[in-house]
Amino acid sequence: MSDIQTQFSALKQAADPVVAEAIERLVAEGEDHQLNRVNVLDFAAAAGVNEERAISGFLHAARLGLFDLTWNVLCPGCSGVLDAHSTLKALRHDDYQCGLCACGYEASVDEQVEVAFTVAPRVRRIAAHDPNTLPLWEYFKQVFWSSGVDLNHESFTSLTDEVTLDAMELPAHQKALMSLQLPAQFIIVFEPVTHTAQFIDVQGEPTRERQQLSLIYDGSHKPADNITLRPGPLHLSLDNQTDLRVLPSVFVAAEGLHHLIGKRKPFVTAKRILSNQTFRDVYKADNLSIDQRLKITSLTFLFTDLKGSTALYERVGDLAAFDLVRAHFHALLEIIASEAGAVVKTIGDAVMATFVRPEQALAAALRMRTAMDKLNEQRGTKDLVVKIGIHEGPCLAVMLNERQDYFGQTVNIAARVQGLSNSQAIHVTGPVISAHAVEAILQDAGIAPIQKHAALRGIADKIVVYEIP
């Protein structure tokens, strides 16, 4: 058995075997472009498998060396890949610049950092492993734009036929000349390898006189220039001073271009990966650096605590109490993982978990309550009573005590809200209850939340909370 076959066998042991087999088929039968920056959500839909299991499968595949995991920083405007990092630790604090949109952005792990997977070169060599050899439009599709841009044959026919005046491959250290007829529109000369752009505002009376413009590509990230020219002929002189081929492309910034790059589809975000249990388990040393602070604009926190655990130990004895507490932890952790959450840490008899969306946390909370009832019934006791609090909001992802953790007022409020319960009740905040999917869950379950005003320790003003009876 070859090393690669051995790794696929290991993948079937570590991940869902159905997902592992689908990944193995993709590597064996997929076209080259299908193995570059795999959009795992697309893969899951095509393979008919659960998204979370698919994500877990690719994380294990990357850990085994079958795929390379990349954290791609995206432009929120055009969804172009501004930079690609092999580890989250390499994510910069300073702005990432997009030449096409002429804007700078601080990377947000909510929607601006894509997690994608490319087959490892030793497993199967594909064209994108040497992007300098990709045809011009394939470079745009496979390297410049992310897996979240919905590109198809029709889209690219539109790009090349309707919004592109000219495009060319210019080898390293070569010069070339483009002869263009400028329409009275806004023009962008964009080069995706160096991420540089020249904006041309074409306006005024048409001219028959040939206008001149020179562009130099030297690898420096200069802000996009904006010049005004008249409709008519243009000689565009291009000088590639870099060691790589460049791909200058002249676009008409019309509705067609905005329509093309505006067609989006879901992709796996860094936020979703950070709240994935498999990632937390197998990538412990590769999360964040000790001084890194990643802003997350929205994350849902769920805190639990076992009511009266100290009295429980006194009442039934250490051995029986430990057995009960362990059974309760096993049930909670299984539910969190199955609802696409991740356990951040356990503190005594308490659990802190994160979810990408509020409805996932509420679904988990309701299942936890039911699970405790079943455990009590099975063991002939009423000792397992779990208090639960849920809150959603902004936070910072940080490293604390060699473990990925979260910091901020959202975390504090979630923990304090959990402390409001004195029975097997769930308490949630306004941002959670107002989520449409949460409303749907409560309506389907026939549950009417009870509104309260609560003073939380360490929080200056009273806040509105809702008890889920």
Task: Describe the protein.
This protein folds into three domains: 3-94 and 104-129; 158-262; 288-468, 2-Layer Sandwich (Alpha-Beta Plaits). The protein has 15 helices and 21 strands. The protein has helices at 3-14, 17-29, 40-47, 51-63, 136-144, 153-163, 255-262, 270-274, 277-282, 309-316, 318-338, 358-379, 409-418, 430-433, 436-445, and strands spanning 67-74, 81-85, 96-98, 103-105, 113-119, 164-167, 175-182, 186-191, 196-202, 211-217, 225-229, 232-240, 249-252, 294-306, 342-347, 350-355, 386-400, 403-407, 426-429, 450-454, 463-468. Strands 14, 15, 16, 17, 18, 19, 20 and 21 form an eight-stranded mixed sheet that branches. The chain has a five-stranded mixed sheet with strand order 6-13-8-9-11.
Q: What features would you highlight for this structure?
A:
469 residues, Alpha-Beta Plaits, 8-stranded mixed sheet, 5-stranded mixed sheet, 15 helices, 21 strands, elongated
Short characterization:
With 469 residues, this protein is an alpha+beta fold.
Q: Distance between the terminal alpha carbons, to the nearest Å? A: 57 Å
Extract low-pLDDT stretches.
none
| Number of separate strands | 21
Total domains, how many? 3
Gyration radius, in Å? 27 Å
Strand-residue proportion:
25-35%
Structural class per helix/strand content?
alpha+beta
